[in-house]
Amino acid sequence: MSLFSDSISSHKRAHTAASDARVVERLREIVGAENVLVDPEKVEPYAQDAIKEKFPPEAVVLPRTADEISGIMRLANDARFPVTARGGGVGYTGGAVPVEGGVVIGTDRMNEIKEIKADDLYAVVEPGVTTYVLQQAVESHGLFYPPDPASYKNSYIGGNIAENAGGMRSAKYGVTKNYVLGLEVVTPTGEIIRTGGRTSKNVVGFDLTGLMCGSEGMLGIITEATLKLLPLPEATATLRATFHTMTEACACVPAFTRARTTPVAIEVLDRNSIEAVESEFAFGLARDAGALLLVSVDGSETEVERAALVVERVLREGGGFDVLHARAREEQDRLWDVRRALSPAIKKYGTLKFNEDVVVPRSRVPELIERVEEIGERYSTFVVNFGHAGDGNIHVNFMCDARDREAVTRAREAVRETFAASIALGGTISGEHGIGYIKAAYMGMALSEQTIETMRRIKRALDPNGILNPGKMFI
Residue 377: pLDDT above 50? Predict the structure, then answer.
């Protein structure tokens, strides 16, 4: 039985046609023998994502071009074996995990930045380019690619688009889909199509680019992306403050808006987060604090100085204490160390982490945290809440011992109630991690059956044989 989801009941799956010797030989003809992996020890890294639950594929194929992926998909439809596309493998809902076996298409070799056009503010990249590499490359041209998922050093652009990744800067700059101008995509049946273009305005036909953003690798495989860029901000500043209550901390978020300031990032940590990082790393935080806010601003030197002063005033007037204001990059990094230390700090509270990413209207974050804390107490499960207060996207982490089946069951019930609470507060069950197979059993809590059936129809229209990334989202 899966520890994570009711939708996957067994690790024992029948081998698919992908294990047939003739199919393997044909795959080798398409991409080269050295780019087809079948040995168990070589395919194992492609069997899991960040949640570490393994579903080994029969083969891993590492193509270099869209034409090669097209050939693989046509073969898959002829021989009827499942295909799962994979980027950096850092997701938290199993979107890139081959739950029904078959072939994994790894985009590791498709890692070229093809063009950076400063005058027209776009870059053309292959799907295997990491977010970090792209950001560094465009910054050398004085440009800026804002999306910044926490896994930015390991996540691939193709996966970011498929999951519509967010990150800390989404409070000001939005999420990945806001920066996708056009795509090259191989459809589930093997056609190569282009969507969108290289201009910021384009309303010719249906918005297929938007359809692919957040489609979780179920409607097509991204082989090239044209991404919108911005001028690189001249300066940044970061402020940190602690508060006696979560309500005080979150009340600062709309106060920034009333003060006509839009921070780049507004991150909140709850009391358990503060206790965890302080006990493990001794940052000097007040152990009795109920919340901590990290706030960043950017712009010209003059704009940043003004905005930082406004933010500091709002923090202090809102009840913030131990307020720190960092201007130099090194000083800012030290303030952000508290946020970066969270993941290692909470490991001592359990060997299994249910890392959820619920989202509510930002004014309701304090109510969400209060309800989640009550849920954790009721199910005797340690819970840590932190995340993006600027857009109401909170990472709720229920910790337990993976060997304790009763504790795992309690944690899963706590997750279900957290989803229900998020919806009751006007939110939903995922802000950036997606559905995959982990949240498939809960999707009906957030969407009507009519809406889900419309999604199924789109899937059937594009993938009539159910080849691409089966076992996800719909159960």
Answer: yes
Rounded distance, CA 82 to CA 471, Å? 10
What is the pLDDT confidence band of residue 15, given thresholds at 50, 70 and 90?
low
**CATH placement of domain 350-434:** 3.30.70.2740
pLDDT in tens, 404-453: 999 999 999 999 999 999 999 999 999 999 999 999 999 999 999 999 99
Q: How far, in Å, CA of 13 to CA of 16, rounded? A: 9
Task: State the Cα–Cα distance between residues 434 and 95, nearest whole angstrom.
Answer: 8
Fold exhibited by the domain 235-343: Alpha-Beta Plaits (3.30.70)
pLDDT-derived band of residue 51, with 50, 70 and 90 as boundaries? confident
- The helix/strand/coil state of 114 is strand
Q: Provide the strand spans (E) within 19-121.
A: 36-37, 59-61, 83-86, 103-106, 113-117
* Residue 245 host element (H or E): none
pLDDT of residue 12 exceeding 50, the answer is no
Alpha helix stretches (DSSP H) within 181-231: 208-212
Q: Exposed, middle or buried by CB within 10 Å (0-12, 13-18, 19+), for 233?
A: middle
Exposed/middle/buried for residue 341 (C-beta within 10 Å: 0-12, 13-18, 19+): middle
Q: Which fold has domain 113-231?
A: 3.30.465
At 18 the pLDDT is: 67
Listed in order, the ranges of the chain carrying CATH 3.30.465.10 are 113-231
